[in-house]
Write a structure and sequence with these properties.
2 domains, binds flavin mononucleotide, alpha/beta, 19 strands, six-stranded parallel sheet
Length: 461
Amino acid sequence: MKRAVILLLALCLCLAIAPPAAADAPGKTLVVWFSCTGTTQAVAETAADILGADTYEIVPIQPYTDADLAYYTGGRADQEQADPSARPAISGGVEDMAQYDTVLLGYPIWHGQAPRIISTFLESYDLSGKTILPFCTSHSSGIGSSADDLHALAPDAVWLDGTRFAAGASREEIAAWLDGSGIRAAGAVGVFDFEKRTVMLNSGYEMPILGLGTYSLSDEECYASVTALLQAGGRLIDTAYMYGNEAAVGRAVRDSGVPREEIFVITKLYPGAQYDQPEAAIQEALDKLDIGYIDMMLLHHPGENDVQAYKAMEQAVAEGKIHSLGLSNWYVEELEEFLPQVDIMPALVQNEIHPYYQENDVIPYIQGLGIVVQGWYPFGGRGYTADLLGNETISAIAADHGVSSAQVILRWDLQKGVVVIPGSSDPDHIRENLDLFGFALTDDEMGRINALDRGEKHDWY
Ligand SMILES: Cc1cc2nc3c(=O)[nH]c(=O)nc-3n(C[C@H](O)[C@H](O)[C@H](O)COP(=O)(O)O)c2cc1C
């Protein structure tokens, strides 16, 4: 396993993720960087995106030309690095530094040190009491003493250990670093943010906590349903090769006018030919969806060559074709066998979950690994929906809140930390299924629904 993944796994195990609650508002963070050729900037922007932090780029009044940057030529950069008192001037500044508790400070390594303009920056502000997390990029050098040598310029700041990234550092690597350095709020991975209606995945991407399942929807129904979802503000769509409607999902996404990056599409590879030739299967999904990248790809259920298929998905992550990975219909034993064989920790496990089949032993195990849980068949699945929605306890709770039984079940899922993707082709139901934030279930109501568990699984793989 990659070091970053082991680190993340260890961290998540230690945290033993608490039942989801609205995330605490952390202190404000500013990501600051200086970058001449974009390498440091890429890391900084990814870190800022993961943290939802503000950004500030250190821009020199006198830009560095290629000749200035040509090292070992005695040019401008070489000269500045040879002169510890050099302070290249900065254009503009941070508007209100006082509002930030934490500053990430990124720079390229120049002759083993931070560029002197970083010294200019540090001397321009009162950074006392702020936490500073340095990071650098370089051709091959480590961070060395470059960060420690900056401490004297902001002696009253709390300096965390810095780290070095190579060009092209992955989002997963950056997320693991932020977790490991404690910058990302402890437990943030997997914690549902009910304000933003998203959850932060261990891959460093945010995923909406509610959306639409497209199982059994024909192309036409699927296109109309995804369109209705996106118009109603929903942003999460679950499809699969097996559903035969990836192309319709992609078309609806493209036609929606909603910015691509706001939408989160999950699809799945199916055992058999797809696990045997996963590269071709991944390409097929990319082609059918035709939405640039795939937000998340799952293995539909355990099967021959599933590890091989997952490894191909890992490669697609490295190539930027897929952002996050996950598994569907994997339970405790299956996970114990599977996880040691792969490098990227799954970000999500999607299983059958409803009040009659609650997986109360499985969910905490998965969440404890820092993996988000998503439920399929939230209303019990075909042939069982009427029974479940008509359940006395659920109906009574629904009546008390003036909502539908479906909304009660979905809200129960969210309060358990389970992402919901109810399937529907009815625009009214699709809108109703998104309307889950005007009420909350009490502990007593949660307990009454928890008591309905019958261990009654309605579909098998
Ligand atoms: C003047 C100068 C000196 C450099 N010195 C080193 C060095 O000592 N070790 C190293 O690995 N890379 C060195 N590099 C390469 C940069 O650290 C590396 O390309 C960095 O990722 C560039 O970041 P940027 O694209 O954000 O500007 C140097 C680059 C310049 C311009």
